[in-house]
Amino acid sequence: MTRQAFLDFIHAAEHSSSLREAISSCTDKQKLLNLASNYGFSVSLRDIEEDSTAEKALCWFDASKIAPIRRQAR
What we know:
Elements: H1 3-14, H2 17-24, H3 29-38, H4 45-63
């Protein structure tokens, strides 16, 4: 029930043609959640629905990093 579990599920789908086929046959979110559970992933509806928002926040934090101050040699 974490975003990481959802990302792990997506990663597994990227590397498994049979999982991608099974995902493509899901007609609603509940079937997708059941499929994830059958493959051993603890994914919730909230994980799916909030993934886009979480991804935008992570991108913003990555883009907003301040470079460390480097000391100049004396």
